[in-house]
Design brief:
Elements lengths: L40 H16 L8 E6 L4 E13 L2 E11 L7 E9 L5 E3 L2
Antiparallel strand pairs: 1-2, 2-3, 3-4, 4-5
């Protein structure tokens, strides 16, 4: 796996702000994330945008998926909710990000846990 260890990531990173700058509680902070070599900065933002759509969808359901693609680079992927659970008093879900970098088969899977804080903000627990 190429993903680095990351304790929390404000959901503002995935709401239309360009990689690698985050909004919300982490205004101006860089995203220390690497989905793997070969993804453009634009490609690297798209999994976070698909995650934001899943986090905002109600009700949250296991199996719900959001696809993304970049016609400029031909990279694509999906983010899928694998499991919903509670941790530390927060509602959380485990996501699988399947990322296909153009010209590199097969795709790679990354798993991240996202939890909703008491303020309603979704954060990644890595």
């Amino acid at each position: 796996m190429y993903a680095t260890s990351l304790t929390t990531l404000p959901v503002g990173c995935a709401r239309g702000l360009r990689y690698p700058v985050c909004g919300g509680a982490g205004l101006g902070h860089a995203i220390p994330w690497n989905w793997g070599p070969g993804l453009s900065p634009q490609d690297s933002q798209l999994p976070f945008e698909s995650t934001a759509r899943l986090n905002e969808a109600e009700p949250v359901k296991v199996g719900r998926s959001e696809a993304w693609s970049n016609p400029q680079t031909s990279s694509s992927g999906t983010s899928t909710i694998l499991r919903i659970f509670h941790s530390g008093g927060m509602v959380c879900h485990r996501l699988r990000h399947h990322i296909i970098i153009a010209g590199q088969q097969p795709g790679h899977d990354y798993r991240l846990t996202w939890c909703r804080t008491s303020t309603g903000e979704w954060k990644s627990k890595g």
